Amino acid sequence: ESFGKMGWDSITIDMQHGQNDYQSSIAILQSLQNSKSTPMVRVPWVEPGIIMKMLDLGVLGIIAPMINNKKQCEEFVSYCYYPDKGQRSFGPMRAQLHYGKEYFKEANDNVLSFAMIETEEAVNNIDEILSVPELSGVYIGPADMSSSYGLTPKFDVEEKIILKNLEMIVEKTKKYKKISGIHNGSTNYAKKMLEMGFNLVTILSEYRIMSDAAQSIVNEMKENKVVNNKSSSY
Question: One of 17, 36, 164, 222 is an active-site residue; which one?
Answer without folding.
Answer: 17
